[in-house]
Amino acid sequence: MRGRDIKAYVPPQPTTLCIFPYDEQGEPLTERAFQERFPAAYGHLQSRRERLMACQARTGGPWWTPRFRIPKDTAGSPKLIAGKVGFGNNFTVDARQGSLCHSTVVVVRPDPGALSPYYLLGILNSEVFSLFCQHRMPTIGPARHICRVLAFKEFPLVLPESAERSTCKEIAALARELCEGSLGVRTRQDARSQIDVLARALYGNHVGRDKARY
Fold this sequence. Notes:
There is one protein chain. The protein is elongated. Strand 5 (about 140) and strand 6 form a beta hairpin. It has a domain at about 80-205. About 40% of the residues lie in helices and about 10% in strands. It is built from eight helices and six strands. It is an alpha+beta fold and about 210 residues long. The relative contact order is 0.13. The chain has helices spanning about 30-35, 40-45, 50-55, 115-125, 125-135, 150, 165-180, 185-205; strands at about 80-85, 85, 90-95, 105-110, 140, 145.
């Protein structure tokens, strides 16, 4: 998944396929299993075996596996993703567990027991978050920013409380409808505008109060 594949509230359609030599538990395939399942890829890597072995000697991994951290705790809540370039108002939901994200992608995985991913999605695509990006993220053009993770972690998130629970549920419901694609163009615009109104009211009620952070 690359940043250019991602649009707000639109199910992501990755344009790149990647051979991932790991099993369903995140363990590397044996060399024989990798050779049998992906013979062309194995042959390509075999021609560079010495170089790959030298690289993997520093990490201790098998020579035929890519050098990156294996995602952990991927079960449960769907992840929210956005492109790092052009950051702001461009989050969507990626419910699939089998997609890998390029370094041009921001990944947020909320705790499903504490927070609705669709509520968080609505907030991160709202004018409230856009204003935060405008002041805290490097700008590369009109309403286009580059994500800085340390700055992103400082965004104050209003957690659902008894007084605002209905507002949070309404934001989540609108965001889910936008993701499901059941709304027309004009209705989609109205739904996004309504999320902006609800988010402004929610954050306006919390001015000067402590908010949860990532």
